[in-house]
């Protein structure tokens, strides 16, 4: 439950909003997205229903806001990994591993019911385009440096990477995810030079 009063009204609103998002995520994880009600969220958050409705009109809008926040965090994490020091190949490997581990870890938390529910979120399509561009850029840099194959356009390799690493969601362990990343990366270096 958020503090009743923060330093500013904006901070208080931000804290209440975040408490709503966090509480809803916990409730959905425990009961599924179709079983959670606004009354439950208000009660668990410790606010009145009228206050809750000032922030969000329904459970769906809360879930989409929570999901957008999660996606933004994942994108920031991938961009930070991309921007580290190292060769394009090293940074690509780090980005691919981070992406695959995020996929692996979040699938188990979301469950198939929630994943289907959130799959129609426009934030997902935007995020996929950004990740594709991020990988495409690193592949292009690596090809120019002679570290990665240059016989296939970076656009196609980025698409391959995203599709190959989608399998990380169903793998049994982080070790298996890292093997998948290694296999994916080896396909990009096979014809380098």
**Sheet with the most strands, sense and barrel status:** none
Overall mean pLDDT: 89
Task: Give the helix level as a range of percent.
Answer: over 70%
Counting structural domains, the number is: 2
Q: Would you give the CATH topology of the largest domain?
A: Tetracycline Repressor, domain 2
Proportion of beta-strand residues:
under 5%
Which shape, going by the Cα principal axes?
elongated
Could you give the order of the helices and strands?
HHHHHHHH
Keywords:
8 helices, Arc Repressor Mutant, subunit A, 193 residues, mainly alpha, Tetracycline Repressor, domain 2
Topology:
Blueprint: H1 9-31, H2 38-45, H3 49-55, H4 59-82, H5 88-118, H6 122-144, H7 154-165, H8 174-189
Tell me about this structure.
Helix content is 75%, strand content 0%. The protein has 2 domains: 9-57, Arc Repressor Mutant, subunit A; 66-189, Tetracycline Repressor, domain 2. The chain has 8 helices and no strands. The longest helix is centred in the middle third of the chain and has 31 residues, at 88-118. The model has no long low-confidence stretch (mean pLDDT 89). By secondary structure, the chain is mainly α. Helix 1 (9-31) crosses helix 2 (38-45) and helix 5 packs antiparallel against helix 6 (122-144).
């Amino acid at each position: 439950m958020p503090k009743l009063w923060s330093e500013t009204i904006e901070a208080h609103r931000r804290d209440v909003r975040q408490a709503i998002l966090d509480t809803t995520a916990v409730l959905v994880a425990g009961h599924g997205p179709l079983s959670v009600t606004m009354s439950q969220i208000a009660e668990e958050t410790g606010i009145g229903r009228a206050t809750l409705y000032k922030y969000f009109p329904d459970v769906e809008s809360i879930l989409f806001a929570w999901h957008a926040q999660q996606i933004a965090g994942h994108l920031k994490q991938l961009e930070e990994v991309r921007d580290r020091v190292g060769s394009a190949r090293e940074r690509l490997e780090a980005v691919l591993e981070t992406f695959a581990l995020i996929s692996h870890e979040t699938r188990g938390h979301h469950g198939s019911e929630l994943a289907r529910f959130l799959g129609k979120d426009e934030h997902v399509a935007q995020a996929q385009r950004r990740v594709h561009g991020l990988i495409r850029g690193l592949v292009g840099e690596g090809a120019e440096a002679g570290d990665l194959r240059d016989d296939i356009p970076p656009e196609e390799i980025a698409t391959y990477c995203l599709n190959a690493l989608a399998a990380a969601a169903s793998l049994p362990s982080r070790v298996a995810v890292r093997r998948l990343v290694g296999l994916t990366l080896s396909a990009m270096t096979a014809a380098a030079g």
